[in-house]
From TrEMBL, chains A, B, C, D:
Organism: Saxibacter everestensis
Gene symbol of the encoding locus: purU
Annotated EC: 3.5.1.10
Residues at the active site: 232
Domain spans labelled ACT: 13-90
Protein name in UniProt: Formyltetrahydrofolate deformylase
Pfam family membership, one: Formyl_trans_N
InterPro entries according to UniProt: ACT-like_dom_sf, ACT_dom, Formyl-FH4-Hydrolase_C, Formyl_transf_N, Formyl_transf_N_sf, PurU, PurU_ACT
Signal peptide: none
C-alpha cells in the first residue's frame, strides 16, 4: 500500500469494477476534475454477458492517497464500485516459488534488475536448493522449504508465514512442481500466478510436453493463470505458442517451451504489477 | 453521412482529437449524460510527444445526429476538438481499385458479403479487365479505366468523377499497380488505403518480393497504409509477416505474400470503416 | 494416377516409409543414378521412437513411370518400403464438402484458380444449397446431398458413389457440419482432411468458439487433420492461432477464426497434394 | 577441432556445399555405407539460381575423424565439395562481446548452462565493465577492452590476440555497440554473428527503435546476421518480430525488443554451433 506522504504530482492507477449502468465514467472523471487530476491513460470495458463494467485510469495528481480515497468514497458507495488505488510504478512485493528449473526465475530476476518489471522479489522459495545461487547473485534471500507427503502441511505453514512476514502481495509459481492445498489457494486468491507449460485447456496435468509430442501437435504453448482450487482451471492471463514439427523430440519441446514459459509469465507478472488485470468471473480483463 | 431520421436508441461512434489538457473526458462524457446516452465502448490515448489527445466512444442514445452535434458544439469549440460522428455499422461507401491480381478484391468482397466488413463496395475500378467477372459475381459494377502514360490525366479525371458520382467515402488500392498523381492524393487525403507488398520501410518501390528474396530475409510482410504524395511513406495502419526459408522461391513468396496482403488490408479497411483509426501526424492511433 | 506416356524430363515425387535401417538412402539414390535422374529436392526423417524412416525425393528423369516403378521394386521388396510415386504438380482430384459457411470453399477455389494449389476440384457436395452459386462461379459442379437422421445412410451412399464416379483422390471437409460414419471414414482412410475450428486437443466437439470464449483463452486456433473414426482425434496436419482479448465477442472469434481456418486448411491441402505428408502412426511427418 | 581418439559410435555432422550436378547424394552416402555409418538426419537443398548444392548429414559411425576424412577425399576432389566435419554436440569455443546491456549475454550464458546451446563461452569481452559480474557468476573470464577513437586499433589487436590464444571458433556480438574494422571483419569472416535491433533491411544504423517509433510501424523486430565489412548488410541468419501499437513508447519498444533480440540471437548461435548454417553467397541456407 502506498503511504500518505506521497510527493506532489504523483501518478496514480485507479481500477474499478462494478455492475454496468450509465454515467460511471462521468461520475468518476468528475471526482478527478475536482482533485485537479490529469488523466494520462484510460481503458474501459463493459461485458454485455456479465453486465459488469471495468475501468482502469492513470492520472497525475497532487492529492494524497487519503484525499483521493475520500473523494471517491461517495461515488463508490452509490455505484457499488470495487476500487483499487496505487501509485504507478510502486514495486509489488513478490515471492517467487521454484523447484529445479531456473528459466523463469532467471528471467524474472533479470527483468526486475533491468527495470522492466515493477516488482521487488522479496524472497525465493525452493523445494530444492538448485536455484539458491541464482537468487543469491541477485541479492534475494532463498528459503529452502522441502515438500514431502508428510511435510506438506508444515511446508505450507512455512510459506504462509513467509507471505505474512515479508508483506508479500504476489506469489509467482515459476515452474514450482508442487500443488498448493485448497486452503492456501483460497487464502491467497487472486494473488498467485502460475505458469503452466501447455496451451490450456490442452494438456492439463503432468508432463504436458510429453502429451503434446504424443498427440503430434504443430504448435506448443504456455499459459499464465491465476491459481484456484481447481487445478489448471484458474482464470487465464496470457498465452503464447511456438511452432514445432515432426523432427523435434520431447527435449526440444522442453527447451523451446522454456522460452515461451518465461516470456508468458513475465508478461502476466508485469500486467498484474501494473494493475492491468481485473477479474471478470472465470475470465480476465487485461488493460494492456 | 447518417441522416437525421435515425431510429431511437441508435448506437453512435464518436471520435475526437485535440490538443491535450485536463478535463476533456469529463466534459465530453458530461454531454453524453445530458443526452441520456450509455457508453458501450471507450478508448483514449494521450501522445506525450505530440501533446495531442485522442478519444473514441461508442454510445447508445435516442437523440438524433443533429441533437448530438448541437450538444457537442460548445465543448468542441472550447477545447478545439476535431469531432467525427457516425452511426455504428453504417456501411462506408467504398471504391476498390485493382489491376490483375484478385486476391485482395476477392477477400474484401467475400468478407463484405459475410457481414464481416461494414463497407458497401459501390464500384470496382480496374486498369485491366481481368477481375470484371469477380466483381459481377458479387453484383458490383466494374469500371474499366485503362492507364497509359498519355491517358493518365484523363483516367484520373474519370476516377475523380466516379468518386463524386458514387459518393465514395473510401478508396482501397487492392494491388492497383498504378501510382496516383499528387493532385489525386491530396484531393483524397486520409481516404485512400493502399496495401504494399512488403514490410515497410523495407523494400519500398517495385518488386518487393524480388528484393526480399535477393536479400535473403527470413520473414516477409505486407503493410496497409494511407496514401500520401510521398510514395510508400504514408501513415502505416497495419502490418503482418510470415516466415520464409532458403527453400522458397520468389513465386512462393508471392503466393504466401498474397495471403498476408489480403488479411492485412482487410483489417485496415475494417478499422477505418469502424472509425477506429485517427491520424496523429505521420502515425496512426488504432483503437482496436 | 499418372499415365505412362509422360513426357521426357518429367519431375517426379517419390515418398517412402519403412522400418529404419542403414543404407536406405544409398540404395534408393543408387536406383536414381541408374535411371539418370537428378534429385531436385530431398528430405528425410528417422523417428527414433517408432524406428521408422521417411523419405521424400523430387527428381527429374526421362524414364516412364513404369520404368521407375520397375527399377525400384527389388529395393522396395528387400527393404520393405512403402512407396508413393507421382508427377510433380499433377492436380489431385478433390471433392470439397460444405454446409453453409463458404470461407474455406471460397479460399480453396480462389487458390486453385490462381495456380497456388495443385488440385482439381471435381465437385462440391453441400448438405445445404447456400454455396451452389460460388461453386458455379468457379465452374465446379455442385451436388446437393441433404442429410437427416433418416437419410444419413442414403446420403453417404451418394457421396461414396461420387467419390467413385469422379475418381476422387482427396475429400476436403471445408466446414462440413456432419459427422461421417465409421464405415465411410474407414473406406476413405488417409484421404479425408477436415478443418476443426479450435486448437486441438482443446475444445473438441461442438461450438468450440463458444467454449473458448467461456474459458477466456487469449489465443484461438484451427486444426487441419486427417479424419479417422475417432472424432477430432485424427493425425494433425497443421495448426495456427491468432490473438484475442476480453473485448472480443463470440462473433468476433468466429470472424477471426474463419481467417485462420481457411489458411490452415489451404496449407494442409497443398502439402497433401504435393506429397509432403506421410503418416507416422497417429502423427504426421510434414516435409515442407 | 575434434581429435582423432574419438570413442566408437560417435555421431558426426557432415556439411557439404558444391556446384550442383547429379549423383552427389549417392556418392556421399556410398562412402558412408562403406564406413558402416547410419544416417540419423539429412537435409539438402539445390539452389536453382546459384546452381549450388548444399547437404547436411548426421550419422553414427565407429570410424575416426581421420578415417572419415580420408574416405571422403576422393569424392570431395572429384565433385569439388567444400566439406565440414565435426562431432555432434561438441561445444564450440565462443567469445561473446558486449557493452552495457546484458539481456543477450544473460540469455546465452543461461542457455549454455542449461545444456541448450552446444557452445562453451571461453570469454566475455566488454568495452564497459557493467557485465563483469554476470560473466563471473557463470564462471567465465571477463576482459575489459575499452574502445576510444584513439585506442581502436590497439583494442582490436587485443581482441585478435584473445581469439587466437583462446582458440575461439565463434565471436558473438551480443549488443556490442562498436563497429569492427574491415580488417577484423575479413579476418573472422563467417565466424562473427551480430544481433541488430531491427527487422533488417528496415532501420539500419543507429537507434533503430527510435526510427521505428517515429515511422509508426506496427511490428518491431531483430535480425541475427553474419558480420561483413558492409555494415548491417551481412547474410541474414534469423529474424523475429513482435507487435507494437501507438500506445507504446520508445522505452517499451526497447524492453520488448530485448526479448526478441535475445531469442533471435540464441537461435542463430545454436544453429551455427550445430552446423546448420551454410553460406550461399549473400544468403544463408539454414537446415533446421
Amino acid at each position: 500500500m502506498p503511504d500518505d506522504a506521497t510527493p506532489t504530482n504523483t501518478e496514480w492507477v485507479l481500477t474499478i469494477s462494478c455492475p454496468d449502468r450509465p454515467g460511471i465514467v462521468h461520475a468518476v472523471t468528475g471526482i478527478l476534475v475536482q482533485l485537479g487530476a490529469n488523466i494520462t491513460e484510460s481503458q474501459q470495458f463493459g461485458n454485455p454477458d456479465s453486465e459488469h463494467f471495468f475501468l482502469r485510469l492513470q492520472f497525475v495528481s497532487a492529492a494524497t492517497e487519503q484525499e483521493i480515497a475520500n473523494a471517491l468514497r461517495p461515488v463508490a458507495d452509490e455505484l457499488s464500485l470495487e476500487v483499487g488505488l496505487d501509485r504507478v510504478g510502486r514495486p509489488v512485493r513478490t515471492l517467487v516459488m521454484v523447484s529445479k528449473a531456473g528459466h523463469c526465475l532467471n528471467d524474472l530476476l533479470f527483468r526486475q534488475r533491468s527495470g522492466q518489471l515493477p516488482i521487488e522479489v522479496v524472497g525465493v522459495v525452493g523445494n530444492h536448493t538448485d536455484l539458491a545461487g541464482l537468487a543469491e547473485f541477485y541479492g534475494v534471500p532463498f528459503h529452502h522449504v522441502p515438500v514431502t507427503a508428510e511435510s506438506k502441511e508444515q511446508s505450507e505453514a512455512t510459506i504462509s508465514e513467509l507471505v505474512d512476514s515479508l508483506d508479500v502481495e504476489l506469489v509467482v509459481l515459476a515452474r514450482y512442481m508442487q500443488i498448493l492445498s485448497a486452503e492456501l489457494c483460497d487464502r491467497l486468491r487472486g494473488k498467485v500466478i502460475n505458469i503452466h507449460h501447455s496451451f490450456l485447456p490442452s494438456f492439463k496435468g503432468a508432463r504436458p510436453y510429453h502429451q503434446a509430442h504424443k498427440r503430434g501437435v504443430k504448435l506448443i504453448g504456455a499459459t499464465a493463470h491465476f491459481v484456484t482450487t481447481d487445478l489448471d482451471e484458474g482464470p487465464i492471463i496470457e498465452q503464447d505458442v511456438a511452432r514445432v514439427d515432426h523432427n523435434q523430440r520431447i527435449s526440444d519441446f522442453v527447451a523451446l517451451g522454456q522460452e515461451i514459459e518465461a516470456r508468458t509469465l513475465a508478461r502476466a507478472v508485469k500486467w498484474h504489477a501494473q494493475g492491468r488485470i481485473i477479474l471478470d468471473g472465470q475470465r480476465t480483463v487485461i488493460f494492456r
